[in-house]
Amino acid sequence: MKRLEKKTAIVTGAGRGLGKGIAIELALEGANVVVADLEIAEDTVAEITAQGGSAVACRVNVSRQEEVQALVAFAIETYGTLDIMVNNAGINRDGMLHKMSAENWDTVIAVDLTGTFYGTQEAIKYMREKQSGRIINISSGSWLGNIGQANYAAAKAGVVGLTKTAARENARKGITCNVICPGFIETDMTVKLKEVNGGAAWDSMVSRVPMGYAGKPSDVGKLVAFLASDDAAYITSEVINCGGGMIV
Ligand code: NAI
Questions:
Q1: Rounded to two decimals, what is the model's pTM?
Q2: Considering the chain, what percentage of its residues have pLDDT values greater than 70?
Q3: Nearest residue (CA) to ligand 1, atom 37
Q4: 106, CA 20 to 30 Å: which among 20, 89, 157, 233?
Q5: What are phi and psi of 36, to 5 degrees?
Q6: Residue 87: beta bridge partners?
Q7: Number of alpha carbons in the 13 Å side-chain half-sphere of residue 198
Q8: CA angle 52, 89, 204 (to 5 degrees)
Q9: Which residue's CA is the closest to the ligand 1 atom numbered 1?
Q10: Which tens digits make up the pLDDT trace of 167-188?
């Protein structure tokens, strides 16, 4: 029997990149996956079903509370339960703090932090009734502070505080809540650096990874699958880095 058989997971931002890799790994472990994204996520669903897994797509803008509520309701209606909530959807709008527009601040906070709050809260309401569940929130090594990312760092630090609080409030309800901080993973969010300064920006990021190469979405997906499984039952309120040694 696979580790996540009979479990249902929601993964936000799963149309591509890390979210897609996470959704695929969860499905490989036997979970039914609701692939949630702002855009059409049929590619992810097709890949999962081609491997013999079960997945459905659902459109959501995580910065809208009513849409996140509808997403959780949709998962429960479709698969009869919700066991694993992965709040992965995120964006960046980088720029130095002294030049950052209030709009770029608000937009990143709305998606990366408030979206994670909506997803965590809505899933936990249901999981408290059920007395079991897994919340896995995707932050970033940037939560410790990073030049050009005041908005993103603040949002990702907020995700840590939110998740650790959720972990403590729900530790006796059979729910674990953990944070993953990916390091430098090759996705649409990062691959654009290959176009900056003839690829020098990409090379500079890779040079900061002790292992010497960018991670793959599946590297993070395998960690999510472990945290979602019974094997991780005694792990809660943790911040776990997945970055080839990049985050210290
Ligand atoms: P990406 O840009 O490749 O994919 C993000 C996905 O989220 C897209 O499918 C997009 O449509 C979706 N999305 C964006 N806004 C949304 C919204 N309001 N509602 C629903 N879906 C929305 O990004 P990537 O690299 O896959 O990042 C995923 C997560 O991992 C983000 O939270 C990011 O901050 C985090 N992360 C990524 C790292 C990397 O090296 N790629 C490093 C550290 C953290």
A1: 0.98
A2: 100
A3: 182
A4: 20
A5: -105, 135
A6: 137
A7: 0
A8: 105
A9: 189
A10: 999 999 999 999 999 999 999 9
**Mean pLDDT, residues 191-197:** 93
Minimum-distance ligand 1 atom for the alpha carbon of 188: 3
Q: What is the spatial distance between Cα 48 and Cα 66, in angstroms, rounded to a whole number?
A: 27
Ligand 1 pocket test: pick from 16, 18, 191 the residue with the most ligand atoms within 8 Å of its Cβ: 18
Cα–Cα separations (whole angstroms), residue 31 to 37, 55, 112, 179, 195: 18, 9, 25, 20, 37
Cβ of 62 below 6 Å from ligand 1? yes
Quote the ligand 1 centre to 140 CA distance (angstroms): 11
Structure tokens belonging to residue 126: 């249901």
Any ligand 1 atom below 6 A from CB of 57 = no
- Residues in CB range of 191: below 8 A, 6 or more apart: 202
Q: How far apart are CA 185 and CA 239, in angstroms?
A: 17
Calpha distance 51→53 (Å, rounded): 6
234 is catalytic: no
**Is the pLDDT reported for residue 205 higher than 90?**
yes
